[in-house]
């Protein structure tokens, strides 16, 4: 099955990476991009639109969310990537696409508000269409391998994920990069987060404690953003000892997320989905509050 992908949002560097991956065939020979839609929610300068158009993909300004969805539908995609960067606008952009019965991958963070996440999850379930979102670290090869090694461990695990974030980001503040650390922790947890998420803040550091069934995750975000001096890190401690991993992003770090989405569009099953999406936003919102 060919997967024709529409991209909503043209300003993010993630759009360039998607186009490179598609041109290189890295998402499979039957994935292509049929349109890049630039909504009012994230204005794109004319020279940026021209540069995207030079890649051979139609690029259109589309206005408000409902008009954006109509423009996307006219290009006949099988699925949509919402690639705008501020999560506060993701509910408005995603809902009309779901109502058009299009599977949607929302670039991280999924939403800024857990209530918005729950509304979108409920709508997707009612329409019977796929809805997913994930940071690149959710499916980082090293992190998923580490988590798999501890999956069957007896007793509880203590999971620690840490990394940098920028509270002054113009794309939704701290949450824009902090979501990577949250998703890294969720990749290692064996059960869903449950109960309150207490957060402690000190100069340059915010730490959330996330109870999750058998396990507990501690999520630490350091500011300001410095991926060299403060790399992403994952540690798992259990009855058999401790394992640590420095988590680096490869040049094609979006490929696992996009490839999983394309495969899910073909099978009708995308992941993470449903309650897992709301869990991620709930933890992120607590960390950033």
Automatic annotation (TrEMBL):
* GO molecular function terms noted in the UniProt entry: nucleotide binding
Residues of the Gfo/Idh/MocA-like oxidoreductase N-terminal domain: 75-131
Which SUPFAM superfamilies does the annotation name? Answer: NAD(P)-binding Rossmann-fold domains (SSF51735)
- The domain of life is Bacteria
| Database matches in InterPro entries | Gfo/Idh/MocA-like_OxRdtase_N, NAD(P)-bd_dom_sf
Q: Write the protein's name.
A: Gfo/Idh/MocA-like oxidoreductase N-terminal domain-containing protein
Instruction: Note the Pfam families from the entry.
Output: GFO_IDH_MocA
Organism whose genome encodes this protein:
Cellulomonas hominis
